[in-house]
UniProtKB/TrEMBL annotation, chain A:
GO terms assigned for molecular function: ATP binding; ATP hydrolysis activity
Origin superkingdom: Bacteria
PROSITE patterns: ABC_TRANSPORTER_2
Lineage, opening ranks: Bacteria, Bacillati, Actinomycetota, Actinomycetes, Micrococcales
Domain called ABC transporter: residue spans: 22-281
Keywords: ATP-binding, Nucleotide-binding, Transport
Organism the protein comes from: Cellulomonas biazotea
InterPro entries cross-referenced by the UniProt entry: AAA+_ATPase, ABC_AA/LPS_Transport, ABC_transporter-like_ATP-bd, BCA_ABC_TP_C, P-loop_NTPase
Name of protein: ABC transporter ATP-binding protein
Entry-linked SMART domains: AAA (SM00382)
Record's GO cellular component terms: plasma membrane
Region of interest called Disordered, as start-end residue ranges on this chain: 122-157
Pfam family, one: ABC_tran
TrEMBL record, chain B:
Membrane-protein topology: Multi-pass membrane protein
Main location: membrane
GO BP annotations listed: amino acid transport
GO MF terms held by the record: transmembrane transporter activity
Pfam families assigned: BPD_transp_2
Name the record gives this protein: Branched-chain amino acid ABC transporter permease
Organism: Cellulomonas biazotea
GO cellular component labels: plasma membrane
UniProt keywords, alphabetically: Amino-acid transport, Cell membrane, Membrane, Transmembrane, Transmembrane helix, Transport
Family the entry assigns: Belongs to the binding-protein-dependent transport system permease family. LivHM subfamily.
Organism lineage string: Bacteria, Bacillati, Actinomycetota, Actinomycetes, Micrococcales
Record localization: Cell membrane
Length: 291, 290
């Protein structure tokens, strides 16, 4: 998992067996002359929680956007189970769900409707053809052989799934309220429910602890661990260091678009490069800092 | 008093038609953030199809069916062929105005400027209750069809997965895409729906006008645009309420002050609403509730 030499990883889809889960190799994204992300390697195995941290502007969200197909990589590959991830609208059907920094809940919809939009199904508006071989439920033991796409295309079924997901996250009582009437922490939970209801195999969380209080962060941590325990890989971008260190199996540190450290939380916490770039010296002017 | 009741009855019938046409504008605004200035010209094209089919088959209802189907088809063509190239709101407006010129000129060449009278499918003689003329069977049919269609659309939007996705992609297209909703397709669906609705509204209007001509829906469009703005461009419910209000107001102004005063009344209403509540009458309520 050491990111030092991308060549050592370069799997090539045909050489050897493709690793399960998300694999990012040599990812480089340039916006005009600005290199936002350079040569980033990253793996998220099923059931693993990986955190992507780094100072503001380090390129964390750009990595996310590249994984989601919102940003086209200048170089490098993004694969899930050895197959490249395609366009954004097809992500749900590859088993990828994502939350957003701004939450992105639908203002005119109720809580239940918000979550129901996240249920993938074979309906006119969705990309057709579910390809997820095994769909992971939130709770272990709910892993069904195959989810029936035809059923999930029906509204009642979608709403039932959305309802169950809300109940699981303790928001059952809010289902019929307009989402904008909820306090921020609960709206964040709605956004999380909307991602989880797709029963993703890879869950991308963009600053999930942002704006949350202490108790809400603790609850979020439990949910993330539950999701991972059920076999879903989790990749999260987060500023909240305590949350990251508590919930992650593996931490990747970005600075100026490059991976400067990667490893288990304790190891990363002690890494001098990380302290220098991020953890210990937040107030130091960045310009003169030797790297 | 008799006159007042009659004018209100007529106004309600006209108002529901205007509301239906305004609903078409609202549907497109919500899905694509474009005011479809071509709605009138598109509807008049489908009206020619409908009247042609009605004359050929001898059945008004066949004509109406053909008109609605043609409306949906035209909506699809316009969205896929023209409007999806609009990258800015202003670009959309200019494309739409260009489309108006093309469609109306083409109609002028193909069918000429003469008026084609359109007979109503049911009697348009008003019923009189105790000597007071109220509304005609055609008025009742108009209101029933318009309200039925609005109810159907409401059910579509609130009770089906397609409706949920239409609303989701209208509110937040980027997020919807992440969730697997095909936003571009939703936009096309909205255009097809809206265009079919506008076609039906134009057909309901025609028997009450002098006849079909390439400019038969111009006034309807201006009224419907006013209604949509008054109701709040984002609000189907606002379109209905404002449509009824404007319809009755226009009917009363025409009846008491004369037909020449109605355009002034419409514009005065538009100006007042834009000054006092630029977000529309209903939009604020929805925003607070939502």
């Amino acid at each position: 998992m050491s990111p030092a030499s991308p060549a050592a990883h370069a799997p090539g889809p045909r050489t050897g067996q493709p690793a399960a889960g998300l694999a990012v190799r040599g990812l480089t994204v340039r916006f005009g002359g600005l290199t936002a992300v350079e040569d980033v390697d990253l793996d998220v195995a099923p059931g693993q929680v990986v955190a992507l941290i780094g100072p503001n502007g380090a390129g964390k969200t750009t990595v996310f956007n590249a994984v989601c197909g919102l940003v086209r990589p200048t170089a490098g590959t993004v694969t899930l189970d050895g197959r490249p991830l395609g366009p954004t609208a097809g992500l749900v059907h590859r088993g990828v769900a994502r939350t957003l920094q701004g939450l992105g809940t639908f203002p005119g919809l109720t809580v239940l409707e918000n979550v129901a939009v996240g249920v993938p199904g074979r309906v006119p508006g969705h990309a057709t053809g579910r390809t997820t071989g095994h769909v992971t439920g939130r709770k272990a033991g709910r892993t069904t052989g195959r989810s029936t796409g035809q059923e999930t295309g029906r509204r009642d079924d979608a709403h039932e799934r959305a309802w169950a997901q809300l109940v699981a996250l303790g928001l059952g009582g809010r289902a019929d309220q307009p989402v904008t009437s909820l306090p921020y922490a609960e709206r964040a939970t709605v956004a999380l429910a909307r991602a989880l209801v797709a029963r993703p195999r890879l869950l991308l969380l963009d600053e999930p602890a942002g704006g949350l209080g202490h108790d809400d962060i603790a609850a979020l941590g439990r949910v993330v661990r539950d999701v991972a325990a059920a076999g879903t890989g989790v990749l999260l971008v987060e500023h909240h260091v305590d949350f990251v260190m508590g919930v992650s199996d593996h931490v990747v540190v970005l600075d100026f678009g490059r991976v400067i450290a990667a490893g288990p939380p304790e190891q990363v916490r002690r890494d001098p490069h990380v302290e220098e770039a991020y953890l210990g010296l937040p107030a130091t002017p960045r310009d003169g800092t030797p790297r | 008093m008799d006159r007042f009741l009659f004018l209100v009855g007529t106004g309600v019938a006209r108002g529901t038609v205007t509301a239906l046409f305004a609903l078409s504008l609202v549907l497109i605004w919500r899905a694509a953030r474009i005011v479809n200035f071509a709605a009138g010209a598109m509807a008049v094209v489908t009206a020619y199809v409908a009247v042609g089919v009605a004359h050929a088959t001898g059945g008004w209802w066949w004509g109406a069916l053909a008109g609605v189907v043609a409306g949906g088809l035209l909506g699809w063509l316009v969205e896929r062929g023209v409007m999806r190239f609009a990258t800015t709101p202003l670009g959309g407006v200019i494309l739409a105005i260009g489309l108006v010129m093309v469609l109306q000129s083409a109609l002028g060449i193909l069918v000429g400027p003469q008026y084609v009278p359109v007979a109503p499918p049911v009697s348009d003689r008003p019923w009189t209750v105790a000597g007071v003329p109220l509304g005609s069977p055609y008025d009742v049919l108009t209101v029933a069809v318009a309200l039925g269609l609005m109810l159907g659309l409401r059910l579509l939007f609130t009770r089906t997965t397609l409706g949920l996705q239409l609303r989701a992609s209208a509110f937040a297209p980027e997020v919807s895409r992440l969730l697997g909703v095909r936003v571009a397709r939703m936009r096309t669906v909205a255009w097809v729906l809206a265009s079919a609705v506008a076609a039906l509204a134009a057909l309901l209007l025609l028997p009450t006008e002098l006849g079909l001509n390439p400019h038969a829906t111009d006034v309807l469009f201006v009224l419907a645009f006013t209604v949509a703005v008054v109701g709040g461009l984002d609000s189907p419910g606002g379109a209905l309420v404002a449509g009824l209000g404007v319809g009755v107001l226009m009917s009363l102004v025409t009846g008491y002050l004369g037909a020449s005063a109605t355009p002034i009344a419409v514009l005065a209403l538009l100006v007042v609403v834009l000054l006092v509540r630029p977000q529309g009458l209903v939009a604020g309520v929805e925003a607070r509730r939502a």
